Amino acid sequence: MKRIVAVVGGLLLGAGAVMADQKIAVEQDNLMRGQAKSMYDVIGKMVKGDIPYDQAAVDAAIADLEASVPKIPTVFATNPKEDVKNATYGSSPKIWKNKADFDSKVPPVSKAIADVKGKIKDLDGLKVAFKSINDRCTDCHEVYRVKLK
User: Fold this and answer.
1) Does domain 2-147 have CATH number 1.10.10.10?
2) Which residues are annotated as a binding site for heme c?
3) How many CB atoms lie within 10 A of CB 6?
């Protein structure tokens, strides 16, 4: 009887750990997806001409990025050891092997956002801002993001 209780307890602990890992992975994925929505679904589509320039949408996207980017080191503090199911991209284990370098990639993104905030007044300004911010995002993505599919 003690063995059965121990086995069931072990299985429940293991299941709890897997669910916790998935919760952390989803939180990380949601943060990045939110930033991608602002960066690519709003700003990027305007830059490409897929949607018309909209100052209010630009300001909201920049404000969202400004608020969410500094959260990256905290949200990525724990290695979930698994990826979000059916995700296209995931986090490289390199993040937790070199956390200081990973964290050092965030301030340049925040600075790029701060440098353009309030200065974007038209499509040409948006194009410059997009490149500036995107280049800093790419500095991290090249090393710490992996394509899963």
Assistant:
1) no
2) 137, 140-141
3) 10
